[in-house]
């Protein structure tokens, strides 16, 4: 295996949703997500960001809306501006002031896509003609921030409904510019409005645990249905779940803030069908139970519901309310990431959450697996197996099914008294023999990996051995390739090497490795040599012999803490990551840093590679997962091709010079940007008997862009006294044969003139001095001749 010399970013998975609003294209292919000062457009199928919409001024976006024909995206910004984008072309069509005195908090478009309603924190609702670019109505009456606006689906009625934080629902007539109805049917914030039956019925829902049913002919609430939960959204879909038989009865769907999706009979108020879409256990996650779902929208083309959660995840539900797809909008701080599967088809990620996230590399669909009750701190992967550790003092073993791609929890290990900081799997077999874990309780535990025949749902792991290993937290663990030796690294500045008995019930200390000045953050065994590498907060990477336990090499180059290391190329190279956001590639033989990769903006906690080492994964505090591709072979091939092309062109150039085809030769030298090849051609021409005439004949046949290039070459030649003569001769020929106004049209004529002037004056001064010296020499010679006679 040849040395790795070059990496390139193959893919970057970064945040596309950081809370706030989401919108879906009408065909269900694109998802629009608020992400700070931009709107990210995400492809639903691939899970990748297609584009970002926003302005260079980087202003906060308070609200946005997509037109029904999917042509325009209208943004409302913190600076109280509206920006209309033709988003497919990334063209800003127009910008106009909102005329509101506070940020826009709600927007709605009428069925004809010509009128835009904007509700604001200044308690007013304005209606805009977006075709002509002016506002037509200014409605006042609310005494709270406007939260919801919706046009009646019948474009002939020209009516607008608004709901605000004053808990009132108002209906505005655009024909008469008056408020038709003011209703206080809700006693808390209204969160959603939905029309049904061609606009004859409207449903309003909010945080007061009821849904009000309106008849829109007289705008009266004729029924209030208690749903006994805070409602985020009320939806009237085209098709209800398949378990619902009678389609003639009016129904609606409620999505509660706690994650319950239900079908409610509008006549009886009974719940006919329901399902929970929570990813975490509400009993252990009581803090966020009442605010789990933040938004729900319906897509008629997909016949599904899209949900946004408080922890920035996106869930796509089918018509039966089962989860079809999960997307992770924001990874938060990445603590550990590994390739998963025999073909590295998935990526397992631990972030600042209790959910284990497993991504499909093709679609970036994310499985968010619950099990731990606190933040997952570390992962290790072997084949299809994952082991995770958590601050809940437990470890869990998970398995990826190669056929279905689903991950299930096999076993749980309980025994640590405090947070588990690190875990590692045995390396020798495809099914590991054991697991080791260590953490804040300063001990490491050896767990017997469950046999295939012993696996039952949620089996309990058995502890084979426990050892009090360090005086401070254990930060990292590693297993040797033969599974007989393990290493532990601690905040007490030491690493320790341990031998494991054949029966896995005994552990003996082999050596203590001292030398680092700060805590050890990572360690790895070499895959081929009897070497273990450690990295520390002191910025050094040390390589230790496992035979005599001495430090054989120290790698210096990081300016801050080194957090993770990885052996590459059969143990001949090391890749390291640091708290400065840099990845460094080292050649162990020379202790030289071969390359520095700079893409992350903050600490890089984790790096890992595929079995083939063709891809490397890195992640850290900047919430960005970067996939690096080894392009050493491609770069080498490119260099070889460029070298061959260069040799071939130089041969052609030599042949042209030998055949005295000077015009083609100088044209090729100009196209190859070879100033000194062109100089050799000029010297060859000048050396002929009629060199000046030949030069003049050739120069006159060049195009103006070639004249400019050859003058730039002359500037370079003119800096050297050995080559000034061809440069001056060329300048003489050009000035004699081209008019000054033609030369003045050249784009680079000014720096050419400045460059030639300075050194030409020097050459003239040198020639003047030479002429004076020659006169003095002649005078001396004359005096000597007179004296001799």
From TrEMBL:
Q: Which residues form a coiled coil?
A: none
Q: Name one GO cellular component term.
A: small-subunit processome
One Pfam family from the record: WD40
Q: At which residues are the WD repeats? A: 97-138, 139-182, 183-224, 369-401, 467-500, 513-554, 555-596, 597-629
Indicate where this protein resides in the cell.
Nucleus, Nucleolus
Q: Which InterPro entries does the entry mention?
A: Utp13_C, WD40/YVTN_repeat-like_dom_sf, WD40_PAC1, WD40_repeat_CS, WD40_repeat_dom_sf, WD40_rpt
Entry's Gene Ontology molecular function annotations: U3 snoRNA binding
Q: Which CDD domains match?
A: WD40
Instruction: Identify the PANTHER family for this entry.
Output: TRANSDUCIN BETA-LIKE 3 (PTHR19854), TRANSDUCIN BETA-LIKE PROTEIN 3 (PTHR19854:SF15)
> Under which name does UniProt file this protein?
U3 small nucleolar RNA-associated protein 13 C-terminal domain-containing protein
Provide the organism lineage as a comma list.
Eukaryota, Metazoa, Spiralia, Lophotrochozoa, Mollusca
